[in-house]
Amino acid sequence: MIETILFWVLAAAAVASALGVVALRNPVGSVMALLAAMLATAGLYALMGAVVPALFQVIVYIGAVLVLFLFVVMLLDLRAPAAPARPAARAAVAGAAGVGLTAAAAWGAWKSFSHASPAGGLRPAPGVAEIALDLFGRHLLVFELTSVLLLAAAVGAIFISRTKKRRPS
Amino acid sequence: MNLEHVVALGIVLFAIGASGFFIRSNTLVLLLCVELMLNAVNLILAGFSRYLHGTEGQVFVFMIMTVAAAEAAVGLAILVALYRLLGTLDMSRINILKG
Questions:
Q1: Nearest Cα to Cα of residue B6 among B37, B38, B36, B51
Q2: ipTM of this model?
Q3: Total domains, chain B
Q4: B29–A57: do the CB atoms touch at under 8 Å?
């Protein structure tokens, strides 16, 4: 019972702050709304028994990625635009496309659920030991490849943002 | 809280992120919308991990988090370079690839 209430509260918070990411004019407001959405998602992970992803969500996403976003916002001194740069008709078309996407995805999910219902019992969630054995056992190669990816991303970020020469615009 | 609820919430969050990607014109907010979509997928994966009692869902969540961090680093570097070059982050004003 308490789990259901918590789920609906966290889901409402996640949806509201996700709407805030899109709706807020100020980029700092958008980053803060995304922070709230990430926190709500971390709560949902913890509610589902996925404690390790919840911790990583708070440490990696909120502690590293979103702080990086905030740094860039402050570095670039972005101001909210005075007038919407895109005409309202295009925004309406984009909104309609979003609603259509939701409907299509919901329809697909409904169809797959209707003929293949998962075994929906509340068994205990996999623990840290099981996840670690799986991550460092069967998925060890992928794990090592992600370190290569992170190295490439760091080198690429440094290379892109260096200031030696400016290209003419 | 069933699997259906988690999947429905993930779909709604993904759709908000996807529509925001097309509605907004600030490049930084576009990156935030991409993060929101990745987050929605992560939520669905964690839900399946819970209800199918598998560890793969959570392992994939880690991988997606890593890719998202790499994407944010490179994306923000591109954004800083773009701002230095053009002085704006408005998508409707960035048209240097136009032939």
A1: B51
A2: 0.91
A3: 1
A4: no
